[in-house]
Amino acid sequence: MVPDGVEGDGSGSGPYGDRVRLANLDGRATIITGAGMIDVERGSKGRFGPDLTSAYERWAELSSTQWDIGTAQPLPDPLPADRLGPPSPHPRQVFAIGLNYRDHVEETGSQLPPEPAVFTKFQSSLAGPFAAVTLPSDNVDWEVELVVVIGRGGRGISEEDAWAVVAGLTVGQDLSERVVQRAAGTHFSLGKSFPGFAPTGPWLVTADELDDPDDLRLTCSVDGEVRQDGRTSGMVFGVRELIAKLSAVVTLWPGDIIFTGTPAGVGMGRKPPLFLAPGQVLESTIEGIGTIRNQLV
Ligand code: ZN
Fold first, then answer.
1. Per-residue pLDDT of the chain (297 residues; tens, 9 = 90+)
2. Which segments within the chain are labelled E, that is strand?
3. CA 20 to 30 Å from 85, out of 28, 49, 141, 174?
4. How far is the CA of 98 from the centre of ligand 1 (A)?
5. Distance from the alpha carbon of residue 97 to the mean position of ligand 1, in angstroms
6. What does the domain layout of the chain look like in residue ranges?
7. What is the fold of 85-295?
8. 116 C-alpha to center of ligand 1: Å?
9. What separation in Å is there between the alpha carbon of 102 and the centre of ligand 1?
């Protein structure tokens, strides 16, 4: 069953630590700190709207706002998981990067791509961090990934400026139906876009809240058994490079998201391959950000 609460991560004094997070709570942009939660619209007296999309469109202003901690509402602990939605629920573009960790390239028997292997997960696959996911077949694989949410965005962004156009980071699963994925050669997108195949959350953490945003441990477990355990420093193309290479071609818009690839340990890399089954619980964690949990049905 889907757990009914999100536990704190012990990263500070309050139940949710001292980090400042932006959550999608009941569809409203909500700041979460150790002191409590502040509804962005009410806490700004209407200067910002309630929706997440407008939060990213005015990210520079929003992220530099001094929030009046005195107006924070106490946080329910645990936070009811069913009230949390994806941190960027309506991105105009969803980018995903295949084969972006050396050990994952090896386990799939593939060649290291000379340029990022970019595909998309279509919009209708987006889901909240604790969404139940219906398995369309016996061939669905797990892929824990660091997900970048674009703030200011732009085009022609240098590696040096890359973090400045990012709103923050969140946890994602790039669920993949391997038969459909391979049916069209190297065009992955459809096999990665069944409903619920792109859960993200539990919230957005800004890069400056992390000790080293380029080196975060990411793990994935099925029914408590660890299947993936890597570090984002193992990416072939890191966040800075991905933003530079993507924005050399396309314009990155506020709220766009980038699934940055998965480390080794996926089911298709096993002999024999091992895939997800109904009844299992898939848990994906990134150090300093949090955990998402998806019941498979
Ligand atoms: Zn992936």
1. 233 455 544 444 444 555 679 999 999 999 998 778 999 999 999 999 999 999 999 999 998 888 887 888 888 777 888 899 999 999 999 999 999 999 999 999 999 999 999 999 999 999 999 999 999 999 999 999 999 999 999 999 999 999 999 999 999 999 999 999 999 888 899 999 999 999 999 999 999 999 999 999 999 999 999 999 999 999 999 999 999 999 999 999 999 999 999 999 999 999 999 999 999 999 999 999 999 999 999
2. 5-6, 21-25, 28-33, 36-39, 79-80, 84-85, 94-98, 117-120, 126-127, 140-141, 144-150, 166-173, 176-177, 198-205, 217-222, 225-231, 257-259, 281-286, 290-295
3. 141
4. 5
5. 6
6. 21-81, 85-295
7. Fumarylacetoacetate hydrolase; domain 2 (3.90.850)
8. 12
9. 13
